[in-house]
Amino acid sequence: MTVFDLYVGKVAAYVEGLRAKGRGIRTFQAPMSSARLSQKPPFRVGPGANPGIILRGDTSVELGNPEVGSASLFLLTDSPSTLNDGRITLIGPDIPESASASLPFGQVLMLGGAQLADKDVEALQPVQFVGDQIEGYMMRGVSRRIWSRVSTEAVARGMCFNLLGQALMAVCRSASRKLESMELIFVTSGKEDLDPLDGWSVQIQKIAREIIKENWRIKGYDIDCASNCATCKDHVVCGEIKEVLRERQMNDHTMEGVST
Predict the structure, then answer these.
(1) What angle do CA 73, 241, 111 make, to 5 degrees?
(2) Which pLDDT score, from 0 to 100, does residue 228 have?
(3) pLDDT digit string (tens) for 59-82?
(4) Of 133, 136, 138, 68, whose CA–CA distance to 106 is shortest?
(5) In the prediction, which pLDDT does 231 show?
(6) How far, in Å, are 48, 71, 92, 103, 142 from residue 191 at the CA level?
(7) Are 8 and 84 contacting, i.e. CB atoms less than 8 angstroms apart?
(8) Sign of torsion, CA 35 37 39 40?
């Protein structure tokens, strides 16, 4: 169990809650194991695929402009069966339906693998910001926000959230052999639907930061915290994270003893 599993459950309940409210929800299925695209996309995928900046004049759809809102969640679980591998869920309008629009944008990326551990957060977090790896798609990620642009040419060639999601999964797959399942959610329905994600992302960011700090402490590098533990509002969260990491370390040592 990872410290993020609670939020994996919350995300599933969040989607069902929006469904009950009558939001337009569509699901797509990438190939099982998310190892490859179901079809050759009409755009390149991989390092250097997007050669430059997408200017406003070349933009068909803007996603997550600060004026309309954005939110991003990145979650790991060591129980890959809890995710619907390859499922891409879209809540709200699709890219081809939104020419010249500026849409609120939420992205929830969940990665599962039996060998994944909390310490993998530091290495895998950057995969949610695909950089130059999807042609016609420019993403700027700052902390828990995502601001993206989709070029007019990419939309003319068939860019949609189904293919964008599959491309993002392919990029993730290339980042780690530990990944066994992936699930992805896009939200474009409205800023109010982003509020729960934004609230969770604050807590998830704190958890990830403390995991990274604790991992470095275990390695012998102490990173001081400016807060007083007795008064810090995150004291309980930090304690839970530290306990999980200590248990993981003890289990690792036990397995080493068995193997020898």
Answers:
(1) 35
(2) 42
(3) 999 999 999 999 999 999 999 999
(4) 68
(5) 44
(6) 32, 9, 11, 9, 18
(7) no
(8) negative
CA nearest to 154, candidates 48, 31, 54, 26: 54
> Which CA distances in Å does 77 have to 30, 53, 110?
19, 34, 8
pLDDT given at position 121: 82
- 150 and 186 Cβ atoms separated by less than 8 Å: no
Q: What pLDDT score does 234 carry? A: 53
Measured CA to CA, the distance from residue 133 to residue 148 in angstroms comes to 13
Amino acid 76 reads L
- DSSP letters, 77-146, are ES-GGGS-TTEEEEES--GGG-TTEEE-EEEEEEEE-TT--GGGHHHHGGGGS-TT-BTTEEEEEETTEE
Q: Tokens in use for 184? A: 């992805």
Tell me which residues of the chain have a pLDDT lower than 70.
1, 32-39, 141-143, 214-216, 218-260
Look at residues 99, 107, 105 and name the one whose alpha carbon lies nearest to residue 61. Answer: 99
Break the chain into its structural domains and give their ranges: 5-191, 203-259
What's the pLDDT score for residue 23?
Answer: 95
**CATH for the stretch 5-191:** 3.30.1650.10
Question: What are the φ/ψ torsions at residue 195 (nearest 5 degrees)?
Answer: -55, -45
pLDDT at 9: 93
Question: What pLDDT was estimated at residue 89?
Answer: 98
Report DSSP state, residue 231.
T
